[in-house]
């Protein structure tokens, strides 16, 4: 770049080609070309100093626009900057204790201690990840005695948590089913759209949430899935739908499976909350197991961010249940082929934690107890919030939808301006779609939150 500054404005076709170049413009404005031609040393030095100064201000990335903050993770940044004592962070779905502190599960600490004692090394993992983890994760999802596992029809590849696993599956769809689109629920976890956009997979939405009932628009959902081109991928939340907290009933799941079968669609499950919705790993895997039982080929992305609290370890998996072991082998080989140029191979730490917890009967039962406790705390907070809202709100509004929702979140039905009022007036940090993370709420704060919700709901429109 320095030679560009010395070589005078006119001598820089490279710099001038294409879009207007600010370096060239800046030098020309200083009159440097004329000064340097006269050969005055002092002035030439001045030119060089000025030109370099101008050059420093210029970047080839000048036209790169500022990206908008993430609608979920950006909320935590705003929360950290807030100095009000009553502030509450109900934005990101991350579990907090009753004292609103982050929580490292005891089983995780124990598994880490075991790992240290064993003196595990830090060698690269294979592209597909840690074998013991892949086995444990598929068994946890489908049940160890599931026919698909017994007959080796499941292609499992360790992924960079739920997000990375979804992204890998999206890359697979883009490469091997380029004519298919993905249907996602309206609304859904915001990153789904980014994932499919970046993978070049076309998507559209199916109706899911009914604002009138703050419940499931089942008829709309079925109609939209029916109307999608045959052979579409239907993205479904395995349990604890994010952001609504509204799940289909077992009967509705059966009906959804009927329609997918009729249309030759492929179910693509996002399972980020197994064990967190009901407190039971098996109960929360009901939907996935139903489709596997009915012999669908199924995609399932799994995450251990929430149920084992391993948010920053980035541990999860993509499982593709196939119709034969031969297909599963080939699918797995292609998933590895897609993963390798992206990140070569996945990190080992979280994988070892999961493998140790699931593989050790004592740790496994301790984990289930801790998960039940976490899910139980969220349920208690949900109930307390409902009680406070019903007692305080004299308008007769029915808040019971909060009790019908499950998982970490409640979709309050507050619109954007009402949600903004929650933050601006009450210092309650939440996403603008009206979602609150009950995992970030304590029993003690329910009273304050109920006041904030009632004020925002009735006084802001
Ligand atoms: N799927 C769903 C439905 C989901 O809510 C999340 C995270 C993920 C996948 C990905 O999680 P990962 O940590 O990559 O395994 N949701 C929370 C955090 C976030 O937005 O990143 C949230 O909704 O708050």
Automatic annotation (TrEMBL):
Required cofactor names: pyridoxal 5'-phosphate
Aminotransferase class I/classII large domain mapped to chain residues: 86-453
Keywords: Aminotransferase, Pyridoxal phosphate, Transferase
Protein name: aspartate transaminase
Cross-referenced PANTHER family: ASPARTATE AMINOTRANSFERASE (PTHR11879), ASPARTATE AMINOTRANSFERASE, CYTOPLASMIC (PTHR11879:SF46)
Domain of life: Eukaryota
EC number per UniProt: 2.6.1.1
Pfam families associated with the record: Aminotran_1_2 (PF00155)
Subunit organization: Homodimer.
Family (UniProt): Belongs to the class-I pyridoxal-phosphate-dependent aminotransferase family.
Catalytic activity: L-aspartate + 2-oxoglutarate = oxaloacetate + L-glutamate
Provenance organism: Rhynchospora breviuscula
Keyword Secreted set for record: no
Single Gene Ontology BP annotation: amino acid metabolic process
A GO term, aspect molecular function: pyridoxal phosphate binding
């Amino acid at each position: 770049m320095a030679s560009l500054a010395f070589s005078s404005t006119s001598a820089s076709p490279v710099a001038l080609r294409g879009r207007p170049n600010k370096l060239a413009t800046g030098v020309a404005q200083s009159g440097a070309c004329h000064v340097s031609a006269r050969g005055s040393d002092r002035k030439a030095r001045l030119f060089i100093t000025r030109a370099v100064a101008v050059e420093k201000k210029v970047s080839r990335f000048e036209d790169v626009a500022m990206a908008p903050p993430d609608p979920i993770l950006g909320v935590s940044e705003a929360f950290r900057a807030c100095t009000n004592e009553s502030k509450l962070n109900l934005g990101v779905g991350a579990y907090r204790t009753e004292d609103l502190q982050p929580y490292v599960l005891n089983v995780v600490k124990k598994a880490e201690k075991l790992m240290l004692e064993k003196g595990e090394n830090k060698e690269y993992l294979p592209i597909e990840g840690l074998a013991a983890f892949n086995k444990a994760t598929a068994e946890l999802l489908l049940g160890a005695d599931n026919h698909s596992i017994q007959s080796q029809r499941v292609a499992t590849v360790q992924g960079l948590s739920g997000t990375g696993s979804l992204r890998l599956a999206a890359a697979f769809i883009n490469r091997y089913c380029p004519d298919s689109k993905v249907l996602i629920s309206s609304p859904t976890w915001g990153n789904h759209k980014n994932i499919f956009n970046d993978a070049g997979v076309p998507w559209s939405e199916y109706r899911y949430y009914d604002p009138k009932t703050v419940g499931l628009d089942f008829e709309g959902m079925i109609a939209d899935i029916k109307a999608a081109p045959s052979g579409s991928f239907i993205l479904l939340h395995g349990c604890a739908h994010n952001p609504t907290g509204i799940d289909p009933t077992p009967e509705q799941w059966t009906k959804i499976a009927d329609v997918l079968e009729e249309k030759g669609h492929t179910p693509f499950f996002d399972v980020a909350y197994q064990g967190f919705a009901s407190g039971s790993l098996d109960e929360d895997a009901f939907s996935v197991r139903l489709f596997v039982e009915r012999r669908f080929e199924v995609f399932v992305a799994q995450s251990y961010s929430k149920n084992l609290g391993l948010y920053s370890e980035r541990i999860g998996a993509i499982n593709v249940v196939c119709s034969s072991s031969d297909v599963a082998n080939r699918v797995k080989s292609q998933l590895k082929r897609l993963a390798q140029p992206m990140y070569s191979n996945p990190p080992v730490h979280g994988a070892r934690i999961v493998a140790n917890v699931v593989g050790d009967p004592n740790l496994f039962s301790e984990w289930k107890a801790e998960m039940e406790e976490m899910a139980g705390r969220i349920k208690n907070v949900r109930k307390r919030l409902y009680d406070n809202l019903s007692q305080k709100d004299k308008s007769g509004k029915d808040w019971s939808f909060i009790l019908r929702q499950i998982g970490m979140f409640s979709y309050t039905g507050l619109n954007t301006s009402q949600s903004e009022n929650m933050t601006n007036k009450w210092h309650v940090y939440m996403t603008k779609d009206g979602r609150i993370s009950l995992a970030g709420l304590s029993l003690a704060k329910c009273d304050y939150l109920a006041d904030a919700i009632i004020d925002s709901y009735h006084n802001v429109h």
